[in-house]
From TrEMBL:
Gene name, Swiss-Prot/TrEMBL: ruvA
SUPFAM superfamilies according to UniProt: DNA helicase RuvA subunit, C-terminal domain, Nucleic acid-binding proteins, RuvA domain 2-like
InterPro entries for the chain: DNA_helicase_Holl-junc_RuvA_I (IPR013849), Hlx-hairpin-Hlx_DNA-bd_motif (IPR003583), NA-bd_OB-fold (IPR012340), RuvA (IPR000085), RuvA_2-like (IPR010994), RuvA_C (IPR011114), RuvA_C_sf (IPR036267)
Gene Ontology annotations of biological process type: DNA recombination; DNA repair
Name the record gives this protein: Holliday junction branch migration complex subunit RuvA
Quaternary organization: Homotetramer. Forms an RuvA(8)-RuvB(12)-Holliday junction (HJ) complex. HJ DNA is sandwiched between 2 RuvA tetramers; dsDNA enters through RuvA and exits via RuvB. An RuvB hexamer assembles on each DNA strand where it exits the tetramer. Each RuvB hexamer is contacted by two RuvA subunits (via domain III) on 2 adjacent RuvB subunits; this complex drives branch migration. In the full resolvosome a probable DNA-RuvA(4)-RuvB(12)-RuvC(2) complex forms which resolves the HJ.
Subcellular location: Cytoplasm
Length: 197
């Protein structure tokens, strides 16, 4: 129904951002909300996909059209819902994802939350060779610097929202204690660590 929304970014949480258009604040569920930190109170364009359920109408947002296309192909696979698809996109390694699917790398795919061996096999079956017309280059968004502990708290909350287990997040948090990065950078680094573990 909506292809994109253009408006002012007014709020960032661990699970979503809010974009105001003509006095209405739209909640947009995005893969890594803190990627947008440099754009608070500025006009931005977010590509969207609407999911209508019995109990909710949800909008999912993407920095680029190609990111949206990857999401749409992921949710076309049986066993992958929007939340899981966002967790996959949040790793910000679409090239690695496509490579894993095309090379039938089940070990890589099962490192994503809620992706078991059966779903990984289904991803390969449904999506192998299907990304040739999609740009897998990551969307470039400006970074921001935030206070260390607050940013780390926000990052860990975002990882929980993506479906990672508290035990995994606790180890990650311990690793980053005493450092001072933006929430976005904490999330990106943590996701890389989780994929390698």
């Amino acid at each position: 129904m909506f292809d994109y929304i253009k408006g002012k970014l007014t709020k960032i949480t661990a699970k979503y951002i809010v974009v105001e258009v003509a006095g209405i604040g739209y909640i947009l569920h995005v893969a890594n909300p803190y990627r947008y930190s440099d754009f608070v109170h500025q006009d931005i364009t977010i590509y969207t996909h609407q999911v209508i359920r019995e109990d909710a109408h949800l909008l999912y947002g993407f920095a680029t059209e190609s990111e949206k296309e990857v999401f749409l192909r992921l949710i076309s696979v049986s066993g992958i819902g929007p939340t899981t698809a966002l967790a996959i996109i949040a790793v910000d390694d679409n090239e690695g994802l496509v490579q894993a699917i095309d090379q039938q790398n089940i070990t890589y795919l099962t490192k994503f939350p809620k992706i078991g061996k059966k779903t990984a096999q289904q991803m390969i079956l449904d999506l192998a060779g299907k990304f040739v017309d999609v740009s897998v280059e990551a969307g470039k968004i400006s970074r921001t610097t935030a206070a260390g502990n607050v940013a780390l708290d926000e990052a860990m909350e975002a990882l929980l929202a993506l479906g990672y287990k508290a035990t995994e997040i606790k180890k990650i948090r311990t690793f980053f204690e005493g450092t001072n990065e933006s929430a976005e950078n904490y999330i990106k680094s943590a996701l890389k660590m989780l994929m390698k573990s």
